[in-house]
Amino acid sequence: MTARIEAITGRYLNVSIEGVAQRIYFEEAGEGTPVLCLHTAGADNRQWRFILNDDTFVQNHRFIAFDMPWHGKSLPPAGFETAEYLLTTETYMRTVLAVCDALELEKPILAGCSMGGRIALQLALHHRDRFSGFIAIEASDFQPAWYDIDWFHRPDAHGGEMGAALVSANIAPHAPKTECWNTQWMFMQSGPGVFRGDLSFYTKDDSLVGRLGEIDTKKTPIHILCGEYDLTCTPEDAKRTADAIPGATLVVMEELGHFPMSEHPMAFRPYFADALARMEKA
Length: 282
What we know:
Shape: globular
Distance between the termini: 43 Å
CATH architecture: 3-Layer(aba) Sandwich
Oligomer: single chain
Strand content: 15-25%
Largest sheet: 8 strands, mixed
Number of strands: 8
Mean pLDDT: 97
CATH topology: Rossmann fold
Number of helices: 9
CATH class: Alpha Beta
Number of domains: 1
Order of helices and strands: EEEHEHEHEHHHEHEHH
Low-confidence stretches: none
Radius of gyration: 17 Å
CATH superfamily: Alpha/Beta hydrolase fold, catalytic domain
């Protein structure tokens, strides 16, 4: 095997979010239109590594993928040992905007998956002027839990392995074995209580319900992608959401599940290329 150094570069960003000092890890690659990529609940920016390593994509786009605080290489803030991690919509939005401000991103495209797709819709509602478009992947207005989120932070069960077991049901059977397990590995490495804290936001915040019609897509387009094997945010959920947003578009991705960019990157690639083209055209 010939040695190869990937073009991805990683750095740390020190910012204050809601008065709390945060050291956020981010990776980037490419030049051109900025695209800010958000990972799913309980995971980190490694889910986007295939996009950042795509020679064609990076010719005209600058991709930035960061680890949310408490995730991946972004350590929890000082005093975390006495705190309970529970993500909120407001904190999530402020985190994304703080990263945009610190990196001086001028109206980037926002691409988020799962909880990242949900917050993309929130930002489209509340801060659409800050972005040039939204690619909302596995996104809907609200998804009540079909599982007990407390299973992911118990003294008698390994939360990371419980999380991996849950997400395994949301990976399409067509996913290559290696990437299927790599996707689960990220959840196995999740910090104590982090997946539970993300799912608290994802399964309990219903503030988008009834408000999707207020989103203006005339200047900031919204394109929703949903895997046909996603049993958490089903194609029916995605269609319900897209139908409620005037001007939004939807594509159901064949042979893909809830983590398309990670579980089966080659199958996801044409769908993502089409989404980027839609953003540029708009």
